[in-house]
Design brief:
This protein is an alpha+beta fold and about 110 residues long. It has a single domain, classed as HIT-like (HIT family, subunit A, 2-Layer Sandwich). The protein has 2 helices and 5 strands, in the order αβββαββ. The longest helix is centred in the middle third of the chain and has 17 residues. The chain is globular, with a radius of gyration of 14 Å.
Length: about 110
């Protein structure tokens, strides 16, 4: 069964898309925790960080390059931002399609 994010990728569910190429899509979070809260998602369905295969290394590297590009585009690169990826239920993951939260635009408290 397709994940929520695959449905967004396939345009079955609307989203505020801010970036897309053949491998990666990025869209605004529907419940933002900061002025900028974007989800950066590889189009390949990889359920969790634990499921990243050696063959996915370039794809995950590309995801991080997109995060950096978006951070600059949203002018987060100077003051700073946070990148978060939750893994499995105890880690807070609710959609089992690996994704990265780009969060910024305000002072963020320390987490760890």
């Amino acid at each position: 069964m397709a994940t929520l994010f695959t449905k967004i990728i396939n345009r079955e569910i609307p989203a505020d898309i801010v970036y897309e190429d053949d491998d990666v899509i990025a869209f605004r979070d529907i419940a933002p925790v900061a002025p900028v809260h974007v989800l950066v998602v590889p189009k390949k369905e990889i359920p969790t960080i634990n499921d990243i295969a050696d063959e996915d290394a370039l794809l995950i590297g590309k995801v991080y390059r997109v995060i950096g590009k978006l951070a600059k585009e949203f002018e987060l690169d100077k003051d700073g931002y946070r990148v978060v990826s939750n893994c499995n239920e105890h880690g807070g993951q609710t959609v089992f399609h690996i994704h990265f939260h780009l969060i910024g635009g305000k002072q963020l408290g320390t987490m760890v």
